[in-house]
C-alpha cells in the first residue's frame, strides 16, 4: 500500500464521518419529520452489516466449509441470546476446529 | 483526537460518564481487536490503528478497509462512508435535543466524534438532559477501547500462528451476526430487510454483469435497496429506535 494513497483514503473516511456527525449536530435542532427517511435510516445498520457479512465471510478463512460452520455457530448462539464476545469466540473456535479436521 | 486537548474539571458528571462508558469500552475493545486483525492483512499496524483513532465507527471502517484492499476510488470511499454512516446524522439530530446548554458550538465540534450507536443509546437512556462533561466522560473509555483494541489486534495479527489468525478471520463477521440476529428475532421487519440485503449482496457478488460492481458500491446498493423497500413496507412508528 502506497502511503500517500492510504492517507487520501484516511482523510476522506475521517472527513466524511466527521461531517456526517457534526453538521446535523450543529445545524439541526428539530426532529426529522420525513417518515420514509427515518425508517430508511433505522434499517441501514442491519442491512449494511448483513451485506458486508454475506458472502464475504465465506472468503475470510481457508475453507468455505469451515467458514459456513463458523457462520452457523454464530447464528445459533445469537439466536440463543449470547453476548457479542461469546458469539465471536465460539465462531472462531468452530472454524479453528474445522480447519484442523479438514487439514 | 480533538477532545483530548480539551480541559475539563473533573466534575461528578464527568465521573458518572466515565463509569457508564466502561462496558461500551470493553465491548469496543473486542470488536476493534477483530478489526485490527482484519486490517493487519492489508496494512501495517500503525496505519490500521490510525483508521480507528480517526473514525470510531465499526461498519464504516470495515467497509473502508474493503475499499482500501480492493484499491477502490476516492469517490467510492466517500460515497460508501457517507451512506454507511448517515445514521449518525439521525442520532446527532436526536441527541441535539437531549443535550443541555453547556453544549456550545465549540463543544459540539469537538464532541460530535463520540456519536456512535452505543454512546448514543446510553445518552438517550438518561432521564435528564445531558451535559457536555457527562458526554465527554461517556466517550473516554469507548475511544480508548476502540483505539487500543485495534492496536492490539493489528500488532498481534501477523505474529499469531497461521491457524489462529485464519480462525480469527471470521471474528468480526460473527460479531456482525451477533448484532443483527437478535434484532431479526425481535422484529419481523428487520428480518425481512436483512434477508433482502443478503439476496442483493449475493447477486452483486455472483450474478453476471452485476458482479462488475465494486465491493464498496455493492454494500451500499444492497443496504440501500433493502432499507428503501423496508421503509416503504414497514415504516417506523416513533421517532428513533436504536
User: Ends of chain A: how far apart?
Assistant: 32 Å
Q: Percent range for helical residues of chain B?
A: over 70%
Low-confidence stretches of chain A: none
Give the averaged pLDDT of chain A, no decimals. 91
Quaternary structure of the protein: heterodimer
Structural class of chain A: mainly alpha
Helix/strand order of chain A: HHHH
Shape designation of chain B: globular
How many angstroms does the end-to-end distance of chain B come to? 26 Å
The number of helical segments of chain B is 12
Number of strands of chain A: 0
H/E order of the elements of chain B?
HHHHHHHHHHHH
**Secondary structure: helix percent of chain A:** over 70%
Number of helices of chain A: 4
Q: How many strands, which pairing sense, and closed or not: the largest β-sheet of chain A? A: none
Range of strand content of chain B: under 5%
| Largest interface, Cβ cutoff 8 Å | A-B, 73 and 100 residues
Number of strands of chain B: 0
Strand content of chain A: under 5%
How would you describe this structure to a colleague?
- The complex is a heterodimer of chains A (103) and B (242).
- Chain A has 103 residues and is mainly α.
- Chain A has 4 helices and no strands.
- Chain A has helices at 3-27, 35-53, 64-79, 84-102.
- The longest helix of chain A has 25 residues, at 3-27.
- Chain B is built from 12 helices and no strands.
- Chain B is globular, with a radius of gyration of 19 Å.
- Chain B has helices spanning 12-40, 45-55, 58-69, 74-85, 87-96, 105-111, 117-124, 132-156, 162-168, 171-186, 188-206, 215-233.
- Chain B is mostly helical and 242 residues long.
- In chain B, 72% of the residues lie in helices and 0% in strands.
- Classes of the chains: A mainly alpha (103), B mainly alpha (242).
- Chains A and B meet through helix 1, helix 2, helix 3 and helix 4 of A and helix 1, helix 2, helix 3, helix 4 and helix 5 of B.
Amino acid at each position: 500500500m502506497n502511503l500517500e494513497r492510504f492517507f487520501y483514503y484516511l482523510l476522506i473516511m475521517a472527513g466524511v464521518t466527521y461531517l456526517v456527525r457534526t453538521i446535523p449536530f450543529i445545524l439541526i435542532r428539530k426532529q426529522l419529520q420525513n417518515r420514509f427517511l427515518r425508517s430508511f435510516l433505522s434499517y441501514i445498520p442491519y442491512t449494511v452489516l448483513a451485506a458486508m457479512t454475506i458472502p464475504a465471510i465465506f472468503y475470510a478463512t481457508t475453507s468455505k466449509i469451515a467458514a459456513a460452520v463458523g457462520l452457523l455457530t454464530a447464528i445459533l448462539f445469537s439466536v440463543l441470546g449470547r453476548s457479542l464476545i461469546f458469539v465471536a469466540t465460539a465462531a472462531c473456535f468452530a472454524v479453528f476446529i474445522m480447519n484442523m479436521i479438514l487439514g | 483526537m480533538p477532545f483530548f486537548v480539551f480541559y475539563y474539571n473533573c466534575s461528578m458528571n464527568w465521573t458518572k460518564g466515565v463509569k457508564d462508558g466502561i462496558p461500551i469500552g470493553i465491548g469496543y475493545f473486542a470488536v476493534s481487536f477483530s478489526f485490527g486483525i482484519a486490517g493487519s492483512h492489508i496494512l501495517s499496524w500503525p496505519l490500521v490503528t490510525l483508521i480507528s483513532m480517526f473514525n470510531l465507527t465499526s461498519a464504516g471502517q470495515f467497509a473502508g478497509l474493503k475499499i482500501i484492499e480492493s484499491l477502490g476510488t476516492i469517490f467510492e470511499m466517500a460515497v460508501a462512508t457517507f451512506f454507511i454512516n448517515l445514521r449518525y446524522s439521525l442520532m446527532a439530530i436526536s441527541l441535539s435535543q437531549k443535550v443541555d446548554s453547556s453544549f456550545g458550538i465549540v463543544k459540539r465540534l469537538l464532541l460530535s466524534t463520540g456519536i456512535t450507536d452505543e454512546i448514543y443509546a446510553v445518552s438517550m437512556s438518561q432521564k435528564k438532559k445531558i451535559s457536555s462533561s457527562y458526554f465527554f466522560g461517556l466517550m473516554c473509555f469507548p475511544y480508548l477501547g476502540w483505539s487500543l483494541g485495534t492496536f492490539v489486534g493489528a500488532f498481534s495479527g501477523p505474529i499469531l500462528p497461521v491457524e489462529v489468525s485464519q480462525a480469527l478471520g471470521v471474528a468480526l463477521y460473527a460479531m456482525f451476526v451477533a448484532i443483527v440476529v437478535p434484532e431479526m428475532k425481535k422484529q419481523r421487519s428487520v428480518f425481512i430487510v436483512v434477508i433482502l440485503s443478503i439476496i442483493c449482496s449475493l447477486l452483486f457478488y455472483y450474478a453476471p454483469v452485476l458482479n462488475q460492481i465494486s465491493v464498496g458500491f455493492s454494500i451500499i446498493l444492497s443496504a440501500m435497496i433493502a432499507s428503501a423497500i423496508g421503509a416503504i413496507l414497514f415504516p417506523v412508528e416513533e421517532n428513533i429506535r436504536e
